[in-house]
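Chapter summary example.
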Amino acid sequence: MVEGSHGLGATLFGKTRLAVLSLLCMFPERRLYLRQIVGLTGMGVGTVQRELKALTACGILVSTVEGRQRYFQANRSCPVFEELKSMLVKTGGLAEKLRKRLAPLGPRCRLAFIYGSVAEGTETAASDVDVMVIGSVSFAEVSDALSEVQLELGRDVNPTVYTAEEFTRKASLPFVRSVIAKPRTYLIGDQDDLAGLVQ
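The structure predicted for these 199 residues follows.
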């Protein structure tokens, strides 16, 4: 995790824009109308409406009308879509929600990161959000901590929990080797902490 990344997304984008971008760009299969976006973000109708208009005008979102509803969706063809999505994962949106939920576990949660399709940018509508947690916390504690994020995201969060000793012992196994070799988004700790566990 980059030092000072807490709240970085809101600083870069503004609170309402971050909420709208996170909701739509993190899961580009979603197609939502104004009232749904207001309900899911918890932001005011007027501010959400202004952000949707601005983001559609510059091509980050696309809108379509069906019947009496106007729907908004992320524009995968936007030249900066992949970079924007990557920034949202790292600085706000998904990662920030997960960090906040894990924070009460304190120092017992030594290292945590997103791995798999979400970290690699290859997820589909059916993909789980894979999170690995290493420390002296139980699977039940981690699952409880992340349960509300599942409701917010509308998709499963799949935690894998190891003690530091278990992770070090299993570092040579195919699954752990694959996780280590592929992209990760750190929630707690960083690359140095991971390296210290696998050496």
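To summarize the output: Residues 93-198 form a domain with the Beta Polymerase; domain 2 fold (CATH 3.30.460.10).
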